[in-house]
Structure of Flavin reductase family protein:
Amino acid sequence: MTAPTVLRPGDLGLDQVRRLLLGGVVPRPIAWVSTTAPATGVPNLAPFSYFSVLSTEPPMLGVTIEPRDDGGGDKDTLANLRAGSDLVINTVPEALGPQMWITSHEHPADVDEFTEAGVAATGSCLVRAPRVRDAPLAMECVLDRLVPLGGAVLVVARVLAFHVRPGLLDPRGRIRHDRMTALGRIGGEFLTTTDSFALGETA
Ligand SMILES: Cc1cc2nc3c(=O)[nH]c(=O)nc-3n(C[C@H](O)[C@H](O)[C@H](O)COP(=O)(O)O)c2cc1C
């Protein structure tokens, strides 16, 4: 077998490092994160695919927020969290893909991205940030900590409540991905969670 090409991040441009990370770590789930600006109450909604489960007990999720493309400080989601906002991590259903895309544009902080993208918001139970009404799953969270990673920041969030769409769980309490049709990312493109198969019995 021919040896693989060895590429070191320090020898590459940032764009190529990003291409290898985004193309190589696949599929990536998308956290559609809602927050509120504590001073003004303006809701904010934005997608993040540097996203994973960090632990079960306590239930922790991690989302990494990179610097703004224009170099102009924190993205609104991070600014809201630094100012004391809680958050909701919503799953993106396939049907709301175009709206999710609109919320990824860097809108000014005073723009309500739910309204801007035509996404219905509804109240959360335990946190101030609204949730996406038509998300199959929405997780109400509080900020546990912010971990600086060079220019980026890892947001560690603790789940307080799961909102599960009726009919989404099977009799054993497992999420039915054929019904969730969550959007994920593969490189710069998208996929859905319907292409699944079992290799053995799952919990
Ligand atoms: C599918 C998708 C995934 C994204 N993932 C990330 C991510 O993990 N981290 C990040 O900083 N930006 C990510 N972005 C870009 C942000 O969504 C974008 O910068 C957005 O404008 C931030 O919004 P805000 O300023 O309201 O927080 C992603 C965009 C898309 C479309």
Remarks:
- The chain has a mean pLDDT of 96.
